[in-house]
Amino acid sequence: MAGAEETGGLSRRKFVTGMLAVLGGTITAVIGLPAVGYLVAPALKRSPTDVWVPLGPVESIPIDQPTLFTFSRAERIGWETTATSYGMYVLRSPDERYRVLSNVCTHLACRVVWKDDPQDYTCPCHDGHFAKDGHVLSGPPPRPLQAVEHKVEEGILYVHLVEA
Amino acid sequence: MVARVYAWLDRRLGLTTIYSTTLDRKVPKVNWAFTLGSATLFLAVMQGVTGIFLTVYYVPHPEQAYDSVNYIMNEVAFGWLIRGVHHWGATLMVVTVFLHMLRTFFYGSYKYPREITWMTGVFLLLVTLGMGFTGYLLPWNQRAYWATTVGTSIAGTVPLVGPLVERILRGGEGLSALTLARFFSAHIWMLPVTLLALVGIHLYLVVRLGISHIPREGE
User: Fold this and answer.
1) In a 3-state reduction of DSSP, which class is residue B139?
2) Which pTM value belongs to this model?
3) Does residue A147 come out as left (phi exceeding 0), alpha (psi in the -120 to 50 range) or beta?
4) Where is average pLDDT lowest: A121-125, B144-148, B187-191?
């Protein structure tokens, strides 16, 4: 009886080797892909980087008087929830235009406070002063207070939070 | 090319010798019960690999252990699979270890010259049970908590030293963060290292002495 090699067919040894390679490859893929997926999964998950937060109905905001709105947002990373608090000063002008300023000082990120006298934002940490529209009056802050993008929809004022 | 690389390595590492002494060694004609040791070894390796993967997300802290296990089960890709294999593999490994021991016992394979193989096997059984016991606490759910409460108080019933042993196991009076932390340490370091050393001796002896044949009538 002529061997498979001589007749040009597939020898038993070659068949077994090939089948082992296919099986081995399949097993490696079946085990390896979940393993890689398991390790990289959290890295591929992206939390939304921007969100519109409602501050409240515009009619309740005093006119021409900077008003502080505070809120906190909880973010769940893995199995842990971290809450971040935000503060924003809203200035409503008589002609229904709004100016929203972050209360984070541009110097070293302390929280600024609006003082009716002498009508400025004061940073308690290093005596930085900002005007009503946010520009620097005196002290160490290098930039005006961060203006926050906002919109009014159906009488509700929204601010746009963008992750740094 | 592959053959030349292999030949180069073989001349320096003795790969062919390793292969022929470990895998090509002569064995008597035996039955399927003689595969239980290999099955156990395979499961042990599986437990090691899946266990290492679980430590990527698991946190042994009373406030986070349960949440991190939940996270593995529900949110990580294939987390359910990795933990599932680890969970069921643990149970299955206790079964195969036990059957392996029964096979050894009933075929008299523990006799000369294999007494030390048997003795290391006895410790391997204990370490395996210890792995099961310490691993059971780690999810920090109600079942884990109370099972460990019961398990450690059983140790407390030993005459004289019992209460002390119970306190040492728990790291204090009751179950606490200390208990979880020390069970975790035992589960991923102390017991696995012991297991590895014992498996090393066990396998060395299997290769050195060969396996026993099935006893014949009158033996």
Assistant:
1) coil
2) 0.81
3) beta
4) A121-125
The complex's ipTM works out to 0.84
**How far does B6 lie from chain A, in Å, by closest CA?**
18
Buried b (16+ CB within 10 A) or exposed e, B183-203: bbebbbeebbebbeebbebbe
* Sheet (strand A80-92) strand order: A67-77, A80-92, A98-102
- Which chain A residue is nearest to residue B68, measuring alpha carbons? A79
Give the nearest partner residue to B77 out of A38, A78, A79, using CB atoms: A38
Name the 3-class secondary structure at B23: coil
Pairing of strands A156-162, A150-153: antiparallel
Please report the pLDDT score of residue A78 as a whole number.
87
The encoded tokens of residue B128 equal: 């395996």
C-alpha pair distances (Å), B43 with each of A34, A125, B51, B96? 18, 61, 12, 9
Longest distance between any two alpha carbons in chain A, whole Å: 110
**pLDDT attached to residue A46:** 78
For the stretch B55-86, pLDDT in tens is 999 999 999 999 999 999 999 999 999 999 99
The shortest CB-CB distance from A41 to any of B64, B70, B77 is to B77
pLDDT of residue A4: 54
pLDDT (tens digit, 9 = 90+) per residue, A42-56?
Answer: 888 877 778 899 998
pLDDT the model gives residue B129: 97
Pick from B50, B58, B52: which is nearest to B92 by CA? B50
Question: What does the DSSP 8-state code read for residue B174?
Answer: S
